[in-house]
Amino acid sequence: MQLPDFLRHKPERLAGMAIALAIVLFAAFNLSMGMLFRDARIDLTQDRLYTLSESTKKVLARVPEPIVITIYASQPLLDSAPRLRTYAERIEEMLRTYRVLSGGKVRYQRINPTPFSAEEDRAIGLQMRGFMMNSTGEQGYFGLTATNTTDGFEKIEFLDPQSEENLEYEMSSLIDRLSRPERRKIGIIDGMNMFGSREFNRPPFALLEMINKNYSVAEILTPPINFAGIDALMVAHPHHLPPAVLYAIDQHVMAGKPTFFLVDPLAETTPPSSRNPAVPEVPSSDPGGMFKAWGIEFDNARVVGDRSMALRVTAQSGRQRVVASYLPWLQVKKENFNSNDPATSQLQLMRMTSAGALRVAKDGPLRMTPLIMSTPDSMLFANQDVMGRPNPNDLMERFKPAGERFVLAARFAGNVKSAYPDGPPVPEDQRAKPVLPHVGQSAAPLNLVVVADVDLLSNSHVMSQRGTPITSNGDFVLNVLDSLVGGLDLNGLRGRGMLSRSFKTIEKMESEAEDRYRATELKLSQQLEETQAQVAQLQTRNAPAEATDVPVMSREQQDAIGKFNRQIVEIRRQLRDVRAAGRSQIEALELNLKVLNILLVPAVLTGLALLLWAYRRMRLKRHLASLRLHGGRA
């Protein structure tokens, strides 16, 4: 092919046209691929957070009637916050997929509530959260509502990008609630003040609001006890329950009805004692003999401590503040969950405080399926030894691993006998008289879950002060309730969005450093205390009899005090060196990780770009040389 004259002697023009043509073709390819594969994604996250789960597909497949989702998104607000704009695009992508999977029954629309418009009036009427966009006071909105064909209504006041890991669960649970004609009812016997207290100015637990989103909640307070209409019973921290209430719970369980017990050998987050604020008013749960009768062994005087699961805390050691592992406070990680049970299979991280251990009676009729277990690097402490939160190093010194995995939460199934073999207890008044015939043996296998910790329900274990989940504790409770009443569709969603990842290498190094230097630190601390005591003793021995007297010390005593004070300074220096040595390797690793995260990826990309540039430049030179050699002919 003969090249035109204006290109034959100007090969650089040919190269420029080739580059321009390549750019046009590349843009056209991207545009066509973007249109053809608009919703195609590759999910490289560890837990497949951007891939719709089977649970969501099940929820969408059984949507019985049209559901309309309306997104209120102020365009100026999105333009001013790139992260919000990106999040809005992801939400719309997700809803397009929902529409396809639901066969068109889930629809969505987007409204831009401009200032002083009818759309803004609707957003204000729906109490969407507004954000100041400029100095004139104009408000921006980013939330949504959802309605079905009857009177069902759900809303999210603000679509917070910080909760993006929970987006699929929030959207699917919203659709699931609108798909169900009636909400199931959970009855709660509350020994923790979950419902709050006006007298002590305690608001309801955040977990209660989470349960309320999915179920109708009824607090069971006084006799006559009637569980009619309740789909599941939740008993939290039972103590000092009247005989009529205990008997009603027993008969509920004997009927094979869903029951969820939460008990604790040391309920640290319950209201403090009026006599001693350092300890709870009611530290231990008391199931009233029911567990023993059914064949469940729970020692409410012993607490599980686990070195591998222990939470690291800042504590006082003598006069020093130290960071140490506190054995009774447990971080429950993926390896501690039963991966085959729907209530725990997707959970990532929970927190439990001074939990107890569960067993079944030997040769008893019950079958136990563990849900949460400790590691073999654990032992049982008397709850009196843990009361008042002692020095973590003191507990670590007494730690002797039992080599046994203790069960912290479990399902129980089987046929058992009633805790009241002789029938109902004598009622204190006629109101407490049972209205149903006595059941002496379970009519159906037990449908029972028991957790040996009630602190996991408290706000400090569930939500941050901003109202975002910090653990999977709430997900676990909801999953258990779902599994008990048969609503398993959302179990595969809860907990999969927990993005908290522990650095296992760093945690292992911290534990090893703690073990390596603890003995030296304790020895130095004891020397420091002994030396300080000797100085105090010498000073007390020579204290003046009257306030006006001048203390008299011999030269030897003054020299001794000076020597002891120099020893104190030296021991403190050694303590600082020991603690610094324990952190040096960890800090070095953390620095290396930061350098890798900050520099490695940009360096690799820059290197690849330079290699590509060099390769293309080499090809261009060869092409130009070829054109010159052939006199401009191609």
Account of the protein in words:
The protein is an alpha/beta fold and 634 residues long. It has four domains: 5-36; 54-174, Glutaredoxin, CATH 3.40.30; 184-300 and 355-376 and 401-502, Rossmann fold (3-Layer(aba) Sandwich); 507-540 and 555-629, no CATH class. Helix content is 40%, strand content 17%. It contains 16 helices and 19 strands. The strands form five sheets. It has a seven-stranded mixed sheet with strand order 7-6-8-9-19-18-16, sandwiched between helices. β6 (185-190), α8 and β7 (216-219) form a beta-alpha-beta unit. α15 packs antiparallel against α16. The mean pLDDT is 81.
Report the count of strand segments. Answer: 19
The total of helices stands at 16
> Which structural class do you get from the secondary structure elements?
alpha/beta
Taken as a percent bin, the fraction of beta residues is 15-25%
* CATH class identity of the largest domain: Alpha Beta
- Terminal residue distance: 6 Å
Spatial order of the strands in the main sheet?
7-6-8-9-19-18-16
Give the second-level CATH assignment, the architecture of the largest domain.
3-Layer(aba) Sandwich
Low-confidence stretches: none
Helix fraction?
Answer: 25-40%
Round the mean pLDDT to the nearest integer and report it.
Answer: 81
Key attributes of the depicted protein:
single chain; 634 residues; alpha/beta; Glutaredoxin; Rossmann fold; seven-stranded mixed β-sheet; five-stranded mixed β-sheet; 40% helix; 17% strand
